[in-house]
Amino acid sequence: MHHMTLTELAKGLKAGDFSSRELTTSLLDRIERLDGEINSFVTVTRDQALAAADTADQARAKGESRPLAGLPLAIKDIFCTQGIRTSCGSKMLDNFQAPYNATVVEKLRAAGMISLGKTNMDEFAMGSSNENSFYGPVKNPWDRTAVPGGSSGGSAAAVAAGFAPAALGTDTGGSIRQPAAFCGITGLKPTYGRVSRYGMVAFASSLDQGGPMARSAEDCAHLLGAIAGHDLRDSTSVARVVPDYLAELDAPLDGLKIGLPKEYFGDGLDAEVESAIREAIRVYESLGAKVCEVSLPHTHLAVPAYYVIAPAEASSNLSRYDGVRFGHRCDNPVDLEDLYKRSRAEGFGDEVKRRILIGTHTLSEGFFDAYYRKAQQVRRLIRQDFMDAFEEVDVLMGPAAPTPAFDLGAKKDPVSMYLQDIYTIAINLAGIPGISVPAGFAGKRPIGLQILGQHFAEGQLLNVAHQFQQATDWHRRHPTDQETT
Amino acid sequence: MAIEHADVLRAAHLARLGLNSDAEAAGYVDDLTRILEMVDRLQAVDTDGIAPLSHPLDTTQRLRPDEVTETNQRDAFQACAPETADGLYLVPRVVE
After folding, report:
1. What InterPro entries does this protein map onto (chain B) (predicted)?
2. Of A454, A460, A439, which Cα lies nearest the Cα of A224?
3. A18 FRET partner, CA 20 to 30 A, in A39, A50, A300, B16?
4. Residue A481, Cα to own-chain centre: how many angstroms?
5. What are the boundaries of each domain within chain A?
6. A396-427: per-residue pLDDT in tens?
């Protein structure tokens, strides 16, 4: 049962093939046995998980039947969980127990889902390899010499390794889609505002969005339906009806217009990745879709604009870590300034400091117009590219990342790491949804197909991804335990 | 636009981020130089007349009625603070 989908596990629970306690115990034991090597979890909440499983089993015995009740999942350690440490991958929050739950955590609990624990991540979600965690890097379950991607690397690795059938991630510049691609799972970044950010530790508030990571598009549809929706506690969440994502899954793709952005197939794209993506496009053609080339002419400006906007927002958001109200505090501060400076110097890791410095610099007097204002203007051009493309086509397709998972330790230079996100970052700037689905392998390492849609087109993306998964079995592949260990 | 050692020290001070040594500061000067070189591609784009986009859906902040909706949870919120006394946060003496 370690590699079954949520949908299959729900059937098993309903049929009485196993109880939620048996399922949960089996996964917890597997995590204990194998995660020492993968390092996908920062905190495993065995007691709480088993208690929740018992509650779910009792409710089922009384005849209650909620579709997700009794199903386990893992939660990225960026979502606040009351009474359980929320570290955000940082020494700064190593001692932090949130006094409240994130809205999505509450929603999943209300749906009867069981949290197995909190997953490892790049510190404050800043990274593309999960090597920036205070708790050490995560290894890719397909190949332990490779990174799992980031920043939701722990969530992706946990799903791939058979530790959890699904996980929550967050995506500010690709942090759901790129690790999903590297670990051979399905990951959806919803439209900005579709899912509440309340209780999600803030990195870049105009870009951050939580979403599901799972073993199929169908499972992502289940989870998105459970977590999406307006939240009075998040003023950027959108008051818009949540559709029945499951109802849309089976729509035929006959006549679907797919655009291939030519900029996503240019220099720097690995040949094996390109070949897998082109093969996936042929599958869509066989399902009745029409394919044409489109252009997103400002693509080359997405990474530069992002590395102004995201660090600027981060430098502001992370100013709350002052050593006074919560989080790490240095020993024996001599005065208030020393308290601030040393607490932050000790609590933050290198990449976080780098981004605070960039953001502070670009927002400071004399630089604001040249950097921040300029980047926001370019952001509008980037969004317009997508809107123009969606006048011609229904969805866009391309690779989720230019290469398969790279080796641990391979990218020492920050800029080369940032350029990894070249195909994912523009999507966050534009606020549109995107999904990565497994589409092949380069050797042992998975390749992800990225599908992009218009604002609030999650139902269509899930449908398009699901139909691919009806025609292929890439999403059913999983690493053997020998590979995982 | 090049970034100088003094710019990094200024940003670190504005961000109240302690740097342990000149070598650490120099490392950030190198990193930020490379990052800002990459960012400088933006300068070549003509953005005259383009309104800055601060929110991907171009919406504005929603207002709510000015009503008290939160209860007092001081004890819960201070439970995670490094140092408190009598319901107050403690910091080093600010006024002599």
Report:
1. Asp/Glu-ADT_sf_sub_c, GatC
2. A460
3. A39
4. 24
5. 6-258+392-484
6. 999 999 999 999 999 989 999 999 899 999 99
C-alpha dihedral over A124, A127, A129, A132, to 10 degrees?
Answer: -50
Q: Is B5 on the interface with A (CB under 8 A)?
A: no
What CA–CA distance (Å, rounded) separates B31 from B54?
Answer: 27
pLDDT the model gives residue A192: 97
- Give contacts of A206 with chain B, Cβ < 8 Å: 54-56
Cβ(A263)–Cβ(A300) under 8 Å?
A: yes
Helix or strand or coil: residue B71? Answer: coil
Architecture of domain A6-258+392-484 in this structure: Alpha-Beta Complex (3.90)
Interface of B with A in 61-90 (CB under 8 A): 61-62, 64, 73, 76-77, 79-83, 89
Q: What angle do CA A313, A316, A318 make, to 5 degrees?
A: 105
* Spatial strand order in the sheet of A114-119: A41-44, A114-119, A72-76, A166-170, A210-214, A186-189, A434-442, A445-452, A395-399, A257-261, A290-294
Contact B32 A358 (CB under 8 A): yes
Note which residues in 369-428 of chain A have CB less than 8 A from chain B.
Answer: 370-371, 373-381, 383, 413-415, 418, 428
Chain mean pLDDT for chain A: 97
Q: Which residue has the tokens 């939620």?
A: A20
Instruction: Report chain B residues whose CB lies below 8 A from the CB of A327.
Output: 82
pLDDT of residue A289: 98
pLDDT beyond 70 at A439:
yes
d(CA A71, CA A52): 10
CB A169 within 8 A of CB A213: yes
Confidence of residue A485 (pLDDT cuts 50, 70, 90): low
Q: pTM for the whole thing? A: 0.97
Cβ–Cβ under 8 Å, residues A130 and A121: yes
In this prediction, residues B31-59 reach a mean pLDDT of 94
Specify the DSSP class assigned to residue A84: B
Which tokens in the block code for residue A37?
Answer: 């090597």
